Each structure stands twice: as C-alpha cells, then as structure tokens.
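Minutes, project check-in
Item: structure for the 129-residue chain
Input as provided by the requester:
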Amino acid sequence: MAVQRSDAELAGDALAGSEAAYRELVTRYATPAVNFIFRIVRDRALAEDLAQEGFLRVYQRLSTYDPERKFSSWFFQVLRNITIDHLRVNRLATASLDELAEEGHQGAAVDRQSASPKSWRSRASWRLQ
C-alpha cells in the first residue's frame, strides 16, 4: 500500500520542478476549489474559471508557501483573494433608491399595517402559552 504524500511534500516537489507533484495537488484540490468559489459567486462556470486562475497563481507563488503551515489554508486564502479581486473589479451595477425616487420611479406599495410584526402575532393561528 502506497503512503499518500503530504501537501507540503508535494508543494516542495512542485517548487523543485515536478509536474507530477503539482498535478497531484490539482487533483486533490480541484473540486474543493470550485465548490469554495461557487459558494461566493453562485455561478459554476465563473467558479471554474476563477479556480483555474487560482491554480495558476498558486503555481507562480509556490515559493511563498511556508511548509510549516497547512497548505490548504494557504491555498484557500489565495482562492479567496482572487475571488474578492474579481468581485471588486466586476461589481454589479447599483442604483440609489433616492435617485430613482427623484427621477419619478415609484417603489412597490407596502401595506404598513400588514407588514408590521405586531399584526403577524395578532393574526397567528397558534400561540405559545
């Protein structure tokens, strides 16, 4: 039975030029990387693209990895940074509600009485005794 090499050992070998070691790291972390990013961006294709970018960045910066620390923590921090950078650059367009009101756009009508938590309690069919 073969002993599975640690992430730190694989990272060290990859840094020394072993493509097989780096491929093993990619194999171990491909699915967790995409899932991690997907939880943030909610778009599977984008998550896959950002994970690929993350693997490239990790490869380029392997020399900054401290083998005394957990590889996965360092790796996921790199992914987090890439994802946040992407979100900063590609922010969704937003609009000020005040500006929209000034332009004549009306918001949805709200029945303030039925929206009140007090009215929810009074209409509740169950009560805690």
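Outcome recorded: The radius of gyration is 25 Å.
No further action items on this chain.
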